[in-house]
Amino acid sequence: MNKALRIFVSIMVILTVIMGYGIALAVGDLTLFDRKVVWGGSLLVALIIGVVSWRWWRLVTQSENMWLNYFVNLFGVTGVMAGAIYAVNFWGRPDGADAVELRLPVERLVSETRYRTKRVGRRNVGQEPYRVYRAYYLLPDGERKHVSLQVGEFAKARKTDSVVVKIERGLLGAEVISSQHLKRSAVKKRSPRGSFRSRRSTSRDRVGSVD
Questions:
Q1: What is the pLDDT of residue 1?
Q2: Cα→Cα distances 18→50, 53, 61, 67, Å
Q3: Bridge-partner residues for 135, per DSSP?
């Protein structure tokens, strides 16, 4: 295999592993299933096929060390397998399959400061702060989840609000949160006419008590 093709294949393998972990972490948070089962099963598969597939990873590591390639195989295959399981279950579900919609109260509103690497050209010049806004809620089984908010939504949000959560059954049987959004609580406005009548009746009661 020539050098250009080897570099291309290595890049594609690395990107596939990154994508697998990305999907597993993102979609896994929306899947109502024990993560230990998914990650444990993926690791078991990686352990078994690694007996043979460690040789394929020499293309990426550029090393003949069996143990190095075996552990790289464990890391790569585990992430790809977990990502595939979550993806198939989430995006392979039939539309509206056993859909249930819940309206759950907001447990707490949180604003957090995070940091990301700031780049100027090709150089990393430090950490750049940014804010994330979340509304946390509890599912009926007690599991805590959150919905991300825009800064405008967070500014208007109140603890009396609720989160509307739509839950569906995935293709592999695990339930998933297919949609979630913040629902503002209705604010009751006092009627000016009613307020006048209330004040008038109150004044009458006061006059009657004096008599």
A1: 62
A2: 19, 19, 16, 22
A3: 109, 147
